[in-house]
Specification:
This protein has two domains: 34 residues; 66 residues, no CATH class. It contains two helices and two strands, in the order H-E-E-H. A two-stranded antiparallel sheet has the order 1-2. The longest helix has 28 residues. Bound molecules: zinc ion (ZN).
């Protein structure tokens, strides 16, 4: 990853975390949060494995690790690459697809 990519990623992380901190702080001021959840309808890909990306319509992919999973759009967020999933890439080894056929 280049210095420019790292700077871009850092900026995006700060912007998204700031936006969500503000959003959840505002919501908690209005009403005490009764239901604590990490899945929110405003989130683009989190918790949406297999659903269409709201930006480009590609199927949201996932990386499974321990009991957690991370969701991403392979078109908007990884430049068309299917990211390594520890469980699946171990199983598939050389058959691991670099991208998903459309
Ligand atoms: Zn997308």
């Amino acid at each position: 990853m280049s210095r420019t990519e790292v700077a871009g990623l850092h900026g995006a992380v700060i912007a998204v975390l700031t936006e969500w901190t503000d959003r959840l702080t505002r919501a908690a001021r209005e009403k005490f949060p009764e239901k604590v959840t990490a899945f929110r309808p405003e989130m683009a890909v989190h918790g949406r494995f297999g659903s269409p990306c709201p930006v480009c319509g590609s199927k949201v992919e996932r990386i499974v690790y321990a009991e957690n999973e991370c969701n991403y759009c392979p078109k908007c967020q990884s430049g068309g690459r299917i990211l390594a999933d520890r469980a699946l890439s171990r199983l598939l080894k050389d058959d691991w697809p670099r991208s998903r056929p459309n």
